[in-house]
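We emphasize that the prediction below concerns an isolated chain of 81 residues; any contacts that depend on oligomerization or on bound cofactors are therefore not represented. The input was used exactly as deposited, without trimming of termini.
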Amino acid sequence: MTSGVAGATRVLGKNQGYFGLPVRDELIEEAVNGTETPCMVTAWEPTPDELARLTAGAHVHVRILGTAHPPIVVEVGNSPK
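Result of the prediction step, given as a token string:
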């Protein structure tokens, strides 16, 4: 998968030896934390092989490094125009 998000405001992990994950900082309205909840948004674009596997029923795996993390939201973005 390739990663990137329109309007990225920073890149996470690059100085730690990872490829680097572009993120966009946002404020959202969230049911538990209320209005102006800070969050980071990124996007993954599946390669043709990954897209074929997803179409064939493969699952999306989200791996969190470490033993604890804050809540996350996984959702489908808008269709490309």
